[in-house]
Protein 1
Amino acid sequence: TLMEGCANIIPPSGGPRDSLPPLLISATPKDSMLNFTGKKIVLVFDEFVELDQKLQDNLVVSPNPDIMPMVESKLKTVTVTLKDSLRTGTTYSINFGNSIKDVNEGNFYKNFTYVFSTGDELTTGTLAGRVLLAETGIPDSTLIVVLQRNANDTAVVKNKPDYYTKLDGSGHFQFKYLPNETFHVFVLPNDYTKKYDDSTKMFSFYDVPVNVGANTDSIRLFAYQQYKPADKNQIRSTAPAEKKEEPKTGADKKED
């Protein structure tokens, strides 16, 4: 006989939390494309994605362009529109940092990098090292390492860097896809100009030019502050005190 009755319906628990980052399933043009001539890159992922609000803080394009690309997300797609003219025979990399994440759980696709070349090969030069603060010996991840081709002493003051990269939490840095050329290496804060245009900025420089491809994995730099910004409280305490007018006495009032 059949047993009659109503079963208690238990809603599914939903399973374990999704902890996996989005997976790239296609790129148009394809990653590591040679003889690249386009202006738009379309990246398709296996789930719905969105861009972090700090996209501009995360995005690093090498070589450093005059105009940063526009990056947009919609459903499972991230589209990059290049706004700057491309140099011939040059390898470009677009490092998204931690800016692409899935919509549901916010899992980041960490340090995803898309690479292409406007020439017939990808350059593979690397440059790595570590930066510490000279005063304390500890790392500061708000600093960046910049590379200048120009040997002039004022290049780091006047010119945007050819390449720059961020430090990790331990102060380590690494450049990839560099041409086999000679660069001058500097350390600066990661601000808008990426130039040494203020003597109160943290600063460091490598005392010899570096030829990429020859012993470029052990650079050590110590950042220092040539002049510390003036303390506003100290300025107030050293400013001459305003002369207060003495209250008039009764006798003074009579003389008036």
Protein 2
Amino acid sequence: GDARTIGIDRSGDDRAWAVIAEGMAAHVLTDITAAIARTRRHKLPGEVERVRQATRLVEDGLLKVADQFAPGMTELDMAAIITAGMVAGGAVPRFVSVTSGPRSALADAYATARRVVPGDLIRIDAGCIYQGYASDMARTFVFGTPDAGQARCHAAIRAGIEYELDVIRDGLDVADLFNETVRVVRENGIPSYRRQHVGHGIGLGGGYDMPVLSPHTTDSIEAGMCLCVETPYYRIGWGGMMIEDTILVTRDGYDPITTIPRDLICVG
């Protein structure tokens, strides 16, 4: 008989499976989606360096926005600064979500021609693909001086992500990490804080790697994982803010891949 086997990763869509299946006997095809996901959990040094370079290009873009910011800028102006740096650095922009004022409460929204005004929160969540590997990080800006509510909420989400980073290590239970991170944000200034997850694996471009840091994930953190850890906060009509870092998990903690400060960045 025919002993050939073709493994297909079906995590994106089923087009490859469907095309190959047209000319193959059903027993020749094997679904290897779960096996590929398990393999991608841990990163080799070369993979880590590509994630690190993709992250550095986003960091550079955020720092350029802070340096070049001027009254009258639009969300698109800031997105253009970040995107240009990605391309100049040899990367392909993956997403550049620049939202301001009330729009900053809209997760993963595109930048628009809206001009920022004093008092606006500006939430920037961006990533690119460098030699096949992705970045994903975020920081929050404020045009002028933050008011008491903005400062309190940012302090709360910063407390949450810094707790998350303080406790991450090999063997940590994912659901426990989620629950405790949410608790810390609530206790530090946002009692109503809710999230679906507080991070995810990252690596090859095109989607999350395992694990997603959610309360429903029955998994443990493992050394060698690249993770994005995050504590976004969105309130419709008020705005949104976000801190997201990328790390490499080690046996006793983590190696930072994102390196810029987690401050609420005042511009203008």
Protein 3
Amino acid sequence: MTKILALDTSSEACSVALYLDAEVRESFELVPRQHTQRVLPMIESLLSEAGLELTDLDAIGFGAGPGSFTGLRITAGVAQGLALGAELPLLPISTLAALAEEARLDCAAEYVLVALDARMGELYWGAYQVREGRLFALVDEQVSAPENIQLPEGVLHSGANWLGVGPGWNFQDQFPLAVQQAVSTIEPDRQPRAAAMARLAALDFEAGKAVAAEAALPVYLRNEITWKKSNHRD
């Protein structure tokens, strides 16, 4: 039985999940600025309820980004510490893909445009298609101004039904008109969740994509030096 722990602190939410042979158990809390205090107790509680120790797991998945710089460092640090202590591999999972996976499961969406607020007038975004029950990226994940979001021409004008998810959709009035017209439904209140990451991590584990703890790094998309020069804090 495949057993994977997943955790995420990339947004205002803190969540952990256990993947136990296709069954997923999750603990999710909206706890802005309390991630460091909550994530380890949540992990301990979830493992205890399942009657498991860290060493019983096959791997640990974590929200690798993009997202809050501080939150990503917390997640990566906790995941690396746990993995090193238990001698487990890590599975870095995209927060954008996790949101798209949620939409696939909850809304039966075929095309999903995910957008997260990157601050400084920019968004993290990615476009995905669901085929045969699996998620496929249509473009590389990017950070850009809302007006620079572009969907692939092949599906933009095909009449495909797009779903928009993530807090970045609070800036939809700044999106290109063609993108606004292509997306029929939006869900701006969704946050990345460890449950979706656990499912994606299980797929990656089966595909042999697990990496050593020291090789698993956050994905910022934006150049961190630029972020530091801006004196921005998240």
